[in-house]
Amino acid sequence: MTPKFQGVAVNDFFMGMKERNVAGTTEPLQNARVTIAGAGGLGSNIAIALARSGVGHLTIIDFDIIEMSNLNRQQYKVSQVGMPKVVALKQNLLEFNPFIDIEIYQVEITPDNIETLFADCDIVCEAFDNPMAKAMLLDGVTNYYPDKPLVMGNGMAGLHITNEMQTKQQLSNVYICGDGYSKGPEGLMAPRVMVCAGHEANAILRLLTEQPVLAE
Predict the structure, then answer these.
(1) If exposure means fewest CB atoms within 10 Å of the residue's CB, which of 67, 138, 147, 158 is most exposed?
(2) CA-CA distance, 178 to 90, in Å (whole number)?
(3) 77 phi and psi, to 5 degrees?
(4) What is the distance between the alpha carbons of residues 125 and 36, in angstroms, rounded to a whole number?
(5) Which residues pair with 57 in a beta bridge?
């Protein structure tokens, strides 16, 4: 008997979800493994974009819980306030793509656990809001995994012009997305956070499908 999902054969449902994807991307994305460090404004939006696009394996790491102040830009619901972010995000992602494999860790990333937490992924995605945490992850990943791509965010605060957002190559395997200047204390709003998250997600998808991240 053919397994079914929502009354439709599983394979037909899966392929129906991928009907509008770019040709030739379904298989490489389904086999890909991405680890996202942080599940806040950047991380939750990046995770949704990757899940909808068909990345088959996501690992999400964040020690925090959802607060009311997160709801202006992070992809959580009022009913999820008080829940661990990783638990709520996994719940939401599976509603967008039930065929994805999601591993979650409610831990703080430190220099002591970077080697273990990022060992099995193809790409590391940085989605912190703390500059010191960003620097710590950059140092750790480039030390332990110098050949592994690292996609980062820097500068998405305020209500500045979104055209100032760019993706730049910082090192041979490090890409930084954002405007490079705006800082969190001036306020974080959904539109610019989502634009920056889109830059990061698109860079990841291009890397996974062996396309140049930047124009040649």
Answers:
(1) 147
(2) 26
(3) -110, 160
(4) 5
(5) 33, 101
pLDDT for residue 155: 96
Beta strand pairing call for 4-5 and 8-9: antiparallel
Question: What is the DSSP code (8-state) at residue 195?
Answer: H
Asked if residue 89 lies in contact with residue 47, where contact means CB atoms within 8 angstroms, the answer is yes
User: Shortest CA distance to 103 belongs to which of 87, 127, 84?
Assistant: 87
Question: Any idea of the CA torsion for 43, 44, 49, 55, to the nearest 10 degrees?
Answer: 70
Beta bridge partners of 123: 34
Selection from 73, 89, 92, 88 nearest residue 184 by Cα:
73
Lay out the sheet containing 33-37: strands in order across.
101-105, 57-61, 33-37, 123-126, 150-153, 174-178, 166-171
Listed in sequence order, the residues at least 6 apart from 146 whose beta carbon sits closer than 8 Å to its beta carbon are: 173
- List of the chain residues with pLDDT < 50: none
Q: Per-residue pLDDT tens for 73-93?
A: 999 999 999 999 999 999 999
